[in-house]
Amino acid sequence: MDARQLGYFLAVVDHGGFGKAAEQIHIAQPSLSQAIANLERSLGVELFHRVGRGVVLSDAGRRLVEPARQVLRDLETARDAALSVRELERGRLDMVSMPSPGIEPLTAMMTRFVERYPGIVVNVEGAFTADEVVAHVRTGASEVGLLGSAEDLRTAELRMVPIESQPLVLISPPGADLPPGGTVGREDFRGLRLIASQRGSIMRRFVDDLLADVDGVRLAAEIAHRTSILPLVLAGFGHAVMPASWTPLAERTGAAVRRIEPAWHLHVSLVCRPEGLSPAARAFVAMAEDWRDR
Hints:
By secondary structure, this protein is α/β, with parallel strands linked by helices. It folds into three domains: 3-63, Arc Repressor Mutant, subunit A, CATH 1.10.10; 66-164 and 267-290, D-Maltodextrin-Binding Protein, domain 2, CATH 3.40.190; 166-264, Periplasmic binding protein-like II (D-Maltodextrin-Binding Protein, domain 2, 3-Layer(aba) Sandwich). Helices cover 43% and strands 25% of the residues. It has helices spanning 3-15, 18-25, 29-43, 59-83, 99-103, 106-116, 130-139, 202-213, 229-234, 247-252, 279-293; strands at 48-51, 54-57, 91-97, 120-126, 144-149, 159-172, 183-184, 193-197, 218-223, 239-243, 256-260, 265-272. The strands form two sheets. Strands 3, 4, 5, 6, 7, 8, 9, 10, 11 and 12 form a ten-stranded mixed β-sheet that branches. A two-stranded antiparallel sheet has the order 1-2. Strand 8 (193-197), helix 8 and strand 9 (218-223) form a beta-alpha-beta unit. Helix 1 packs across helix 3 (29-43). The termini are far apart. Residues 1-58 form the HTH lysR-type domain. It comes from Glycomyces artemisiae. This is DNA-binding transcriptional LysR family regulator. GO terms for molecular function: DNA binding; DNA-binding transcription factor activity. Keywords: DNA-binding, Transcription, Transcription regulation.
């Protein structure tokens, strides 16, 4: 068993089959199939069940995914460690973020990080829930995650670094008929059409709470991709409850933003493994801790 075989194995897992994996890693499909067969022979187990033209992970295959990712990560860490004496001039940082923390504080944090380490390539995957972010980090698909939750989270085997709390705001179409001032109370939501994210977020929890408690509030749409919410607001389709990280973008595009009272907060945290991080990930976590302290 060698690192190349493990890389091929993970390519088949990540791309859902031999054909797409072969295209992505630029290898002939028969060569890829032979490499996986050699890996299965060396381990003495089947890693995939062949079903028609597709493949499904076997139990042994599922158990190999996380250790395989960690082995390749450790090799990358070893290579990066050899280069770290040159002040992180090269390397890669794999991250995952939920949408709202992905606007802020991620934008400002990435900007500061790249100013310090311009040779580091930062790759950011997307996730919709805190559980998805934790799973990315736990399985090794990403080294660092940013998530938002209704309360500070704790999870076994991983390290959580609280970063900031963002109050929820109401984002409204330009010229919306709302009371003057920069805040809205729960009763001000009467008669409003709300655009909401799908269940699982604090914003959706707030909207569901309004629907149950305040007469006249209407749920106009459930949107999985939060990047679609602001255009719908600007088009006059409805109003949206979002974290304050969306405020600068919303105001620049002409939407009206009001703070909600009493306040609800999205707690933003960084999650990572407690050890075994690459030099780039360690540097980002250290910068995040400094960010929090300031």
